[in-house]
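Example A, followed by Example B.
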Amino acid sequence: MAAPRTSTQETSAVADCKPLTGREQLAHLADDITCHMWASAFFNAVSGFITEFITRNGEPPFIIPQFEYVSAALALETIVNASQQKKVTAWLLERRITEAEEGHWRKYINNDSPVPLPTRDKEDKTRAEFLAFTQHLQYKMTKKLTLLSDPQLITAP
């Protein structure tokens, strides 16, 4: 396994951003929601694989971290004015996760490498390794066609 990376590359260009029109925003958010649905399905497939494996072989000698996929939805507002012109506004709604609920936010794997990022403790290392395993399994399950990177997950309550 390759050595863990110590930093992530930031590519944000917020200063250069300008608001998109409703239709442009809808096109981008529709892609985001589609990716979210596929990612959720892949994660559910891994969960099913693990459940089936345990049913056939018994409990493993280690703890399997429990995660929950973050809920998301596409919300649309359409306003029709007096001259029958439509104005569409689109939002991506995601479940809000508070620090009180889940603790300090942490990133386990960056989307440019399958190698987990360095962690603070043994529990976070176990989670990071499990997420790396899920990426590998998804890649194998899709016959090397798909790699889910940077999933939006929280630890299960």
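Example B, a separate protein, is given below in the same form.
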Amino acid sequence: GEPGSKNRNPFIASIFHETNLAETKGSGIRTMRTLMEKSSLAPPTFESDHSANLFTTRLLLHHFLNETDLQWLDTLKEFELNESQKKGLIFLREAGAIDNSTYRQLNACDVLRASNELRTLRDKELISQKGKGKATYYIAGNNLNTEPLELNTEPLELNTEPLELNTYGETLNTYGETLNTYGETLNTEPQSLKQELPSELREKIDSLGERENDSNKIKNIIYELCSLKSYTLKQIALILNRKENYTLRNYIVPMREEGKLQYTIPDMPKHPDQAYISI
């Protein structure tokens, strides 16, 4: 939601104000924006979820539109972007995604203008829309390269040595071996996730059969798992050896409705980095 000055605890707020430990209600965010803009820093963004008692602040601690940013934006000249769109794309590059609310905060604009400018970026395939309605957000599109530019200032060194064809052949064989190893690494990912868990929790997970139908037992394991740290849906499904859609439908959604789990990014439910943590 939009940042505002609604007190979560009016008694504490009153004490801080009366003892001169806090400024006038609602002045903090405005002051942060002003000071960061004066220092040429990227403006902060805020996400507030009163129902979950969660407040998130994003501070991109680098100079906004620095030399690297300008060089990156220079690669997008053909798209004729305005200043607001440039800010939005730089934020997306740093955070991985952006939504209408964040775009409005960055550019101090209304919903209509933000929607129109985001739509233009989408039509130019600089961003790609995900989700629907209030859950809509945007990630990098086909025409947007979010990789940082690497400027090589070292002089080129020409190799004057003759090529050795036999060595090249050996390199190809090694490459084939690397591909096989890669496949093995993917298969062991669930095991690597389990290794970081306490032994008691690992034993509970290992005791689950593929046909385990005690939903409360599995929910308790998920709750204990997400009490350690946040996990994505994919990670939870891998650890439990269940399919993602099945895990989401039968456990994650009910646990959120029961108030046992919450999003780590509540204002963007379909964010690519969305994860869950126990309440």
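On Example B: Residues 97 and 270 are 10 Å apart (CA to CA).
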